[in-house]
């Protein structure tokens, strides 16, 4: 026992910090010195910002060897033209650091056309006020051009990995969402659990989410009742009218419209920015995708075929023998409650936990599925929806969903426009 205690007293924990201009092979050369003396790496982290390296290594070594390690690292870093500093970490300091590892972890993602210092400062302040500590900050998007006019559809996203238990999680969520509205950027707060890392089913609303219009309004314009139907639609999306009632009233106004106009509308649907790119990434990454819409199956199936969705559930318009709409629908209405039920049903079919699901929508009838899903995202949503949703995207296209899932804009091959696996 005495010999074991003596050995323990001879161990030293040293924090090594290296900064300076990065170069190929630098980390390997420094690690070879640590390997030479059999130093144990307790923690390591590296970041590269505009070719400038910041490398931290926490090592445990025999005190008899620490002097040699420090000497050789000083010589090597001088040759490599980088700076190095050393700090001895006491046993109590180290044990205190280890004890914090069991605390809760959260991911805070901020997203917009650009990210400003004011937005980062405000976000970091909320994190600090809630008693959380920022472990790391990672940029998920590609580099931003200096001349934004050259690339108007640019995106910027950074991810905070934070640790601790919030003073009040609901208050933290509310504070972040308030910031997003005030400073015009998007924020997501997610607990960093195994479910966040293994989400597998994503369900989308269609109208005003996957497409930049309400199809029933397009049909109404062809039928000459556009203004009347549009007023009912807007009231329903704001939650002022029961969806079933509004749906029945609007469909009745379409009576007599020739069914052939649906093909023309489908082929000219205004597609939401980022949809094609997002679907390629999701399918390549193994996600199951579904359209759960209060709109119509004809248009949902059109999008399914074009973008490779796995499921479509929407409403079926009744067509008479003369090829004209009867003003009625077939089957049950897909309203907010039905969307929620379908989300749960698809999770069961895919044999996944409900926490592994994602829902994206904009209207009041999307709120039930947004609150039911493991991750509910209000997309360019109506004020009531954005106020009640836990996550929101309002500044960029629907491919912003990818960043909330942790994907990075690190291309494998630019020609193929491929995306790397989520950067957890």
Gap from first CA to last CA: 42 Å
**Secondary structural class:** alpha/beta
Shape: elongated
| Major pleated sheet | 7 strands, mixed
Tally of DSSP helical segments: 16
Give helix % range: 25-40%
Q: Please compute the radius of gyration using only Cα atoms.
A: 27 Å
Strand order of the largest sheet: 12-11-10-9-13-14-15
Extract low-pLDDT stretches: 1-6, 411-418
Determine the mean pLDDT: 89
The tally of strands reads 15
Strand content: 25-35%
Structure, explained:
It is built from 16 helices and 15 strands. It has a seven-stranded mixed sheet with strand order 12-11-10-9-13-14-15, sandwiched between helices. It has a four-stranded antiparallel sheet with strand order 2-3-1-4. It has a four-stranded antiparallel sheet with strand order 6-7-5-8. By secondary structure, it is α/β, with parallel strands linked by helices. The chain is 39% helix and 26% strand.
Question: Any chance you could write out the topology, listing elements then pairs?
Answer:
Elements: H1 2-9, E1 11-21, H2 26-36, E2 40-49, E3 52-62, H3 63-80, E4 83-89, H4 91-99, E5 105-112, H5 117-129, E6 133-139, E7 156-163, H6 169-183, E8 186-191, E9 201-204, H7 215-223, H8 226-237, H9 243-252, H10 261-267, H11 275-284, E10 288-296, H12 297-307, E11 311-319, E12 325-330, H13 336-349, E13 357-361, H14 367-372, E14 375-379, H15 383-388, E15 391-393, H16 400-404
Parallel strand pairs: 9-10, 9-13, 10-11, 13-14, 14-15
Antiparallel strand pairs: 1-3, 1-4, 2-3, 5-7, 5-8, 6-7, 11-12
Helix pairs in contact: 2-3, 5-6, 7-8, 8-9
């Amino acid at each position: 026992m005495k010999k074991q205690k003596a050995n323990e007293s001879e161990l030293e924990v040293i924090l090594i910090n290296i900064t300076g201009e990065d170069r190929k092979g630098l980390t390997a050369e420094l690690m070879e010195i640590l390997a030479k003396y059999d130093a144990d790496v307790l923690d390591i982290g590296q970041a590269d910002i505009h070719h400038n390296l910041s490398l931290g290594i926490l090592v445990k070594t025999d005190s008899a060897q620490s002097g040699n390690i420090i000497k050789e690292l000083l010589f090597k870093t001088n040759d490599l033209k980088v700076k190095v500093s050393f700090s001895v970490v006491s046993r109590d300091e180290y044990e205190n650091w280890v004890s914090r590892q069991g605390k809760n972890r959260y991911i805070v993602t901020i997203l917009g056309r650009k990210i400003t210092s004011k937005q980062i400062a405000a976000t970091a302040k909320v994190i600090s006020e809630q008693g959380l500590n920022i472990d790391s900050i990672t940029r998920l998007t590609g580099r931003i051009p200096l001349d934004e006019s050259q690339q108007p559809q640019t995106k910027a996203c950074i991810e905070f990995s934070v640790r601790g238990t919030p003073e009040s999680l609901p208050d933290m969520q509310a504070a972040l969402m308030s910031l997003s509205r005030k400073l015009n950027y998007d924020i997501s707060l997610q607990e960093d659990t195994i479910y966040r890392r293994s989400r597998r089913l994503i369900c989308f609303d269609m109208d005003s989410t996957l497409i930049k219009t309400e199809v029933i309004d397009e049909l109404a314009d062809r039928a000459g009742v556009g203004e009347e139907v549009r007023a009912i639609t807007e009231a329903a999306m704001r939650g002022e009218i029961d969806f079933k009632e509004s749906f029945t009233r609007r469909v009745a106004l379409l009576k007599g419209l020739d069914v052939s106009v649906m093909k023309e509308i489908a082929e000219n649907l205004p597609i939401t920015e980022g949809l094609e790119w997002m679907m390629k990434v999701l399918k390549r990454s193994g996600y199951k995708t579904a359209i759960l819409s209060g709109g119509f199956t004809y248009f949902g199936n059109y999008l399914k075929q074009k973008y490779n969705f796995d499921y479509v559930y929407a409403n079926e318009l009744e067509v008479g023998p003369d090829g004209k709409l009867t003003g009625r629908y077939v089957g049950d209405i897909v309203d907010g409650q039905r969307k929620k039920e379908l989300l749960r049903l698809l999770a069961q079919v895919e044999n996944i936990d409900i926490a592994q699901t994602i829902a994206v929508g904009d209207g009041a009838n999307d709120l039930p599925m947004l609150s039911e899903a493991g991750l509910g995202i209000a997309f360019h949503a109506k004020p009531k929806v954005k106020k009640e949703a836990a996550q929101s995207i309002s500044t960029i296209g629907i491919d912003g969903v990818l960043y909330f899932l942790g994907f990075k804009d690190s291309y494998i091959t630019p020609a193929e426009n491929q995306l790397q696996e989520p950067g957890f």
